[in-house]
């Protein structure tokens, strides 16, 4: 019995030791606004660029047979009926009457202008609307209604998304809010301190589709500054899972 007790205590100490030696934890790490990586700086020229696996609808006024997920027609309506074009692994979609068309890295405006020029060959003054259905921002942690938020606007701020989640929960630790953003193969992390009175406009950073916001509880310990700026070779959702597991 004594040996069993010693084994259990030793195992608990080992687990505790593993937890406290976690490289993600460092009370001294800074989260001042000056430490933000440049990928989080405000960019007034930002426009969303179409990606692989995006779901796209194309609407032509009065041309239901050429529309996919039309916002104009009554019966050929929208994503509720599963009507969209999926951007494939090569960045292509199949557009009625046009055929295979590469849209990867195009902005919505540039795609609209390009298609309008093509349709003008047989339609007079075509009215076109393009939508990307899966532009999403994820908010996790101590907000009243954590969720994945579909967005239509190009400008979406941190506090806008928190408001969409009905605000912060009572246990939210506003000193250590994290924003994760994937750029190519790397995930960058912004450390936002909303408890400080200065630079509130700078802290209310613009969020982009694919960003993940994590609002920790007040017992949270900040991650090691050396690796909280960039996590190489991962995805935002994988990085979010790592961060959530360290609470």
What does this structure look like?
This protein has helices at 2-20, 108-119, 158-164, 200-203, 225-228, 236-245; strands at residues 55-60, 85-86, 92-95, 99-102, 128-132, 136-141, 147-150, 156-157, 177-183, 186-192, 206-207, 212-215, 230-232. The chain is α+β, with helices and mostly antiparallel strands and 247 residues long. A hairpin with a 3-residue loop joins strand 3 (92-95) and strand 4 (99-102). Mean pLDDT is 78; it is low at 1-30, 76-81 and 220-227.
Summarize, please:
It comes from Brumimicrobium aurantiacum. By secondary structure, this protein is an alpha+beta fold.
Write a concise keyword list for the protein shown above.
alpha+beta; 3-stranded antiparallel sheet; Outer membrane lipoprotein wza fold like; 6 helices; disordered N terminus; 6-stranded mixed sheet; 2 domains; 23% helix; 247 residues; wza like fold
> Architecture of the largest domain, CATH level 2?
Roll
Low-pLDDT parts are 1-30, 76-81, 220-227
| Radius of gyration based on Cα positions | 23 Å
CATH top level of the largest domain? Alpha Beta
Could you give the order of strands across the largest sheet?
7-6-12-9-10-13
Q: What structural class results from the helix and strand content?
A: alpha+beta
Order of H and E elements: HEEEEHEEEEHEEHEEHEH
DSSP strand tally? 13
Would you tell me which CATH topology of the largest domain applies? Answer: Outer membrane lipoprotein wza fold like
Shape: elongated
Helical segment tally? 6
Q: Oligomerization state of this entry?
A: single chain
Membrane topology: Multi-pass membrane protein
Subcellular location: Cell outer membrane
Protein name: Polysaccharide export protein
Family: Belongs to the BexD/CtrA/VexA family.
